[in-house]
Amino acid sequence: MSSKLVPSNPAEVMVIRDIVPRTITTLSVPFARFGRIKVGGRGTIVRLQNGSLAVFSPVALTDEVKQKVAEMGEVKYITALDIEHHIFLGPWHAAYPNAQVLGPEGLPEKRKSQNKEAVPFAHLFSKDKPVTSIDPDFDREFEWEYVPAHTNKEIVFNHKPTRTLIEADLMFNYPSTEQYSKTGLSATSGVLTKIFGMLTNTSGKGQQRAIWYGISSRDRAGFSRSVSKIHQWDFDRIIPCHGDVLESGGKGIFAKVMEWHLELAKKRS
Asked: Residue 86 in contact with residue 80, Cβ under 8 Å?
């Protein structure tokens, strides 16, 4: 399955970009769901104030990525933001074995069923046993919310010093322009991609409806509680795994996409 999703030549098509100089770097790659829908993928590296690195939703560990990591610091944390964003956990952990690996409940079992490399999880986010601390340095710079009501068991982080929300599938920002910028392909071409785009852009009501009637339908109240907590954080930038980075004004866009859930949370409070 993964061979149909990820590019065979990641070094040639990956965009490595400093979002915040010396602090946040993104690794953007083309990613085609079912081999046809241009979703795009993205890993994010955050340099903490003590010089250690936190990696979220790692993508292919190319020589260029290794060089960038070496320039930034020491990898201390590697996080799969949900049960779908784990394909490259094995190579990253092999390269940086001293890093703590974080992920959602159910992921170890899923990886085992897919014959993925065994990875020791230092922290598994669970509804029944919430993760309240990673370590003092990480806790000082990040706040997080586990969203078990999300179909993919999403974990969302806010890097407080840069007011940057880092997430995987909680919210998309179609089209995936940057992620396809080195492929020679249009990020919006194809009928399925266009339909998908109607449900994942942030300009209309499509994504709002897709999340309300689809993603959150099995536990809309629980999803709304999580969204309300996230909305209380102080963030401006949003780095999604799929679609372009929202460089500023992200909180307002988040509130628009999640409007119905925020209203539900308010009614139930």
From this structure: yes
Tell me 118's DSSP state.
Answer: P
Give backbone dihedrals phi and psi of 78, rounded to 5 degrees, phi first. -130, 120
Q: Would you list the domain boundaries of the chain?
A: 2-268
Could you tell me if 153 and 82 are in contact, meaning their C-beta atoms sit under 8 angstroms apart? yes
* H helix or E strand, kind and range, residue 103: strand 100-104
CA distance 214 to 110: 22
d(CA 54, CA 192): 34
Whether 105 contacts 126, CB under 8 Å: yes
pLDDT digits (tens, 9 = 90+) for 181-196: 999 999 999 999 999 9
Contact 261, 212 (CB under 8 A): yes
CA–CA separation, 258 and 238 (whole Å): 14
Tell me the per-residue pLDDT of 6-31, one tens digit each, with 9 for 90 and over: 677 899 999 999 999 999 999 999 98
- We find that the CATH architecture of domain 2-268 is 4-Layer Sandwich (3.60)
Burial 159-182 (b: 16+ CB within 10 A, else e): beeebbbbbbbbbbbbbbebbbeb
DSSP 8-state assignment for residue 143: E
Tokens of 245: 């980075």
- For residues 92 and 57, the answer to whether their CB atoms sit within 8 Å is no
Report the alpha-carbon distance of residue 85 to residue 42 in Å, rounded: 10
Token pair, residue 182, equals: 């080195």
